[in-house]
Amino acid sequence: MVREKWSSGIGFILASIGSAVGIGNIWRFPYIVGDNGGGAFLIPYIIAVFLFGLPLMILEFSLGRYYKTSVVSAFSTLGKKFETAGLFLVFILVMILGYYLVITSWILAYSLFFLFGASVPFSQFTDSYYPLLFFLASAGLLFIVVRAGVSRGIEKLARFLIPVLVLMLLFLLVTSLSLPGAMQGVAFYITPDFSKLNNPSVWTAAFGQAFFSLSVGTGVMLTYASYIRDGNIVKSSAVIVASDVVIAILAGFVIFPLVFSFGLDPESGVQLTFVTLPLIFHEMEFGFVLGAVFFILLFFAALTSGVSFLEVPVATLIDHYGIERKRATAFISTGVVIAGIPPALSYTTLKPVLSGIPLLDLYDLVFGTLGIITAGLVLTVIGGWFVKKEHILGQIVGSERIKMVFIVIVKYFIPLLLIINLVTVIAGMSTG
Asked: Which of 197-201, 262-266, 344-348 has the highest mean pLDDT?
């Protein structure tokens, strides 16, 4: 079976940017900033992205290009127990995609609501079975793209959506900054409260956001790099990480001026996107147009990330088990839907809970927080400690000193940070 490739280096970079730039940048980043004191959060966040996220992305790209296969097949060359570790990463990613699609489906719904001029409060929307229908529609869109293949599906989508996403973001940025009172939001966003930097939870949130946002640690970037022909992976990583940071920061310049212009709470958390912002758009002149642009932008970001999550288990079936793409995509998509139905139902009329916690929130904790940190730890330890360093360093352009610093970061610094993050989360669960 001839293995697929990206048609060009720019196609690979745009697809990787699409994976990194998801709802973590535009939906999650602003409310994390709001929850952690505004501008002060940007300092640990940028440190986390470049000291933690960038080396981890380079590691994944190195592994992917060296082994030229997806995560399970790559790890299986090291032994049976490493194959199991690869399957663990794939399982975590499938479960994350199951609940990620729930959020994606809400975004799709609100895109259509604003396009057709419908005012639907979030409480009313989740008190119906419409979220389940939009969940199935979102899963169907991912299936169509990934089924089409690497260059004809994922790359074509990224080549179209990433430039459109940037243009839409710039349009919203200009509009938001022109509102009365916008500068109050800008001041909240960029003025650092340095006292916040003494709070360990702010740093934990920053490293968690960097990890969540960049799509590193789960084998996504490893799989994407396995399709490249050549090129400088360090330079590509820097471009992708910088793009991710810029888009996240610009999203803050869109959100906070909007929130302050209408006198609403910048620390309103998760409900910022689905409760607070729709209220603002309904009050604004041409608000339905702006609301449609915002939610379509968010949907495009979610879609490009979602296809990268789906590609990893699909590539596993293709590379490791010899199943052709169409069958592999159908099989994995079915599994993702089955995994996602419980969290999808948790914000419908049915509202299933476990120990008083909605299933979506439980998935987010178990898979989206504990699972993704553990997966990152597994990938980093295997890549840093069990893969021969010459296999990794042979893929990297740079001086010997820089390469040695990179190895130290990958072997010691990143695993230590992930362990600290994991312990902090578990400690927070026990005290909460």
From this structure: 344-348
Q: Where are the domains of the chain?
A: 9-431
309 close to 91: Cβ distance less than 8 angstroms: no
What are residue 158's phi and psi, to 5 degrees?
-65, -40
Provide the pLDDT for residue 35. 74
2 token code pair: 């001839």
Q: Is 269 left (phi over 0), alpha (psi -120 to 50) or beta?
A: left
Radius of gyration of the chain, Cα coordinates, nearest whole angstrom: 21
Give the integer Cα–Cα distance in Å for 60 and 374.
16
Q: What is the mean pLDDT of residues 136-165?
A: 96
DSSP state of 192: -
Q: Is the pLDDT of residue 155 over 60?
A: yes
CB atoms within 10 A of CB 200: 10
Tokens of 430: 């026990």
- Distance, CA of 192 to CA of 197 (rounded, Å): 9
Contact in structure between 137 and 108 (CB atoms under 8 Å): yes
CATH class of 9-431: mainly alpha
Q: Return the SS3 of 120.
A: coil
Place of tokens 């729930």: 102
Task: Encode pLDDT of 283-317 as tens digits.
Answer: 888 889 999 999 999 999 999 999 999 999 999 99
Long-range contacts of 228-233 (CB under 8 A, 24+ apart): 228/5, 228/6, 228/9, 228/12, 228/64, 228/65, 229/5, 229/6, 229/9, 230/9, 231/9, 231/12, 232/397, 233/58, 233/61, 233/62, 233/65, 233/395, 233/396
Q: Quick one: what percent of the chain has pLDDT higher than 90? A: 64
